[in-house]
Amino acid sequence: MAQSSSEISFNPQPSLQPSTAPGVDAEPAPYTRPVARRRNYIWSELMKRVFLVDVLQCERCGGGRMKILAAIHPPDATGKILECLGLPSRAPPLAPVVSAFNFQMDSLVFLRAKKT
């Protein structure tokens, strides 16, 4: 005989008692939180992970750790410091773009001139 929908219950878990189920403890295991991984890395760790270079290792002594003393952000202050050190404070000018076709044509002209 068919049962009515009020008499049918859906239970996705098998109805095994702990004493009758093989290998099942009577006490459930305590809940442990999964260990959260850190998502943010400091810049020196990222450089080490990506380029396999320890940017804070001293090159002179070979093992000491360097510290960052200051970060200079204003461009005018950076320019003054570079000029004082005798280093260029401006980026080099961009070279004109050379397409692959022009490069090949220049190579052919050079080869023809060399043969004659």
Structure notes:
By secondary structure, the protein is mainly α. It has a domain at 41-88. It is built from three helices and no strands. It has helices spanning 43-51, 75-84, 100-115. The model has no long low-confidence stretch (mean pLDDT 75).
Comma- or semicolon-separated keywords:
116 residues, mainly alpha, 3 helices, 0% strand, extended
Fraction in helix: 25-40%
| CA-based gyration radius | 36 Å
Poorly predicted runs are none
Please write the string of helix (H) and strand (E) elements: HHH
Question: Whole-number average pLDDT?
Answer: 75
Note the main sheet: none
The backbone outline, from C-alpha atoms, is extended
Described by its quaternary structure, the protein is single chain
Query: Total number of β-strand segments?
Result: 0
Q: What structural category do the secondary elements indicate? A: mainly alpha
Beta fraction of the residues? under 5%
Separation of the first and last Cα atoms: 105 Å
**How many helices in DSSP terms?**
3
Q: What's this, in brief?
A:
The chain is an all-alpha fold.
Strand and helix map with partners:
Blueprint: H1 43-51, H2 75-84, H3 100-115
